[in-house]
Amino acid sequence: MLPEPITLEQLGWDPAWDEEFADLRAAGFEPGRVAVEDKHHYLVHTASGPVTGIASGKLLHESEVPANLPKVGDWVALSLLPNEPKAVIHQVLPRRTKFSRKVPGRDTEEQVLVANVDVVFLVQALDESFRPRLIERHLIMIHESGSRPVVVLNKADLCADFRQTLEAAESAAAGVPVVIVSAKTGEHIDQLKESIHPGETVVFIGPSGVGKSSLINCLCGEEVQATTEVRAGDSKGRHTTTWRELIALPQGGIVIDTPGMREFQLWLAGQGVHGAFSDFEALAPNCRFRDCSHTHETGCAVKEAVAGGQVPGERYENFLKLQRELAYLDEAQHQRACLDRKRKTKAAQRAFNKIKRRANAQDA
């Protein structure tokens, strides 16, 4: 059964999107927003109600990589089938923001998790699973996405003295707002609500078991997402959410829940590193060299801050690790691009030779 209709404005449609869509509307297409993705089949909200959509053959053919296909949060141009709640998706509108990671495994390929998100709530739990280094990893890609990050520390009811944990979280967040909440007791949930405005889209990300679905239930005022208890022995959770889903909030705004990500490999990042390590950027003008990488150079203000205790050593070591990971990924992408160009050149040469042989045969 399809869900109840949601207006385009509730979904985040605004005059800028309407202007972007003008030519497509003139061509006879309707706008819709992807709520659920299942391979090449989608649940899409439109002005006339929710429909099940499939990607057109042309869209599949012209999308050189899977990241270009529709993802949850995307606005798409579609044609409705008469007399049934089905549609064909013909085009993905340019994304304002996108939150990505490298696909799990050895392939160097982008996986777009959600698109057109305004706020990303990065959730960790105040229990044994708390990992400040994971906050830094996630923040790189949140800053790179173009969305506004908010670090959410859930399960405040399980932490008797969270001063040390809060300090570690604030250090890892580097100026990003940090909110302490409890989905179980409802403590400070209003602070999350204040971060969500009508027409905006927010997404909850974080490992399994940190309470993302429980927080969404708090925002909705009812249980719209299934939840499970974490294991008592190691505070690890099971995947409750199995796909990304778009949910309308009663106070306005759209929320997207995501499956817990046991593996989060970085994708290509530029400004995201600077945002996640903004404290390093603030120190950089005091470095001896203008292009200091904060690794081996003498007179590095960042290394001096680490030695003096102003920057935690674990944070600096994680910065070096993430830099190495991004450099490796960049080189792997460069090599892959070179191989792709060679394959295309060889394919074009084979096609040309085939045409030439046909022409010679006709002349003979």
Broad CATH class of the largest domain: Alpha Beta
The stretches of 5 or more residues where confidence is low (pLDDT under 50) are 230-242
Number of helices: 11
Tell me, rounded to a whole number, the average pLDDT: 85
Rg from C-alpha positions?
A: 24 Å
Please state how the strands of the largest beta sheet are arranged side by side.
10-9-8-11-13-12
- Give the name of the CATH architecture of the largest domain: 3-Layer(aba) Sandwich
Q: Sheet bearing the most strands, described? A: 6 strands, mixed
Please tally the β strands and state the result.
13
What does this structure look like?
By secondary structure, this protein is an alpha/beta fold. The chain folds into three domains: 15-92, Nucleic acid-binding proteins (OB fold (Dihydrolipoamide Acetyltransferase, E2P), Beta Barrel); 98-257, Rossmann fold (3-Layer(aba) Sandwich); 277-364, Ribonucleotide Reductase Protein R1, domain 1 (Orthogonal Bundle). 35% of the residues lie in helices and 21% in strands. It has helices at residues 15-20, 22-26, 57-62, 132-145, 163-173, 189-194, 212-220, 271-276, 278-283, 301-307, 313-363; strands spanning 30-38, 41-46, 49-55, 75-80, 86-92, 98-102, 110-115, 119-125, 148-154, 178-180, 201-205, 245-248, 254-257. A six-stranded mixed beta sheet has the order 10-9-8-11-13-12, with helices on both faces. Helix 4 packs parallel to helix 5 (163-173). The longest helix has 51 residues, at 313-363. It is flat and about 80 Å long. The N and C termini lie far apart (65 Å). The model is unreliable at 230-242 (pLDDT under 50).
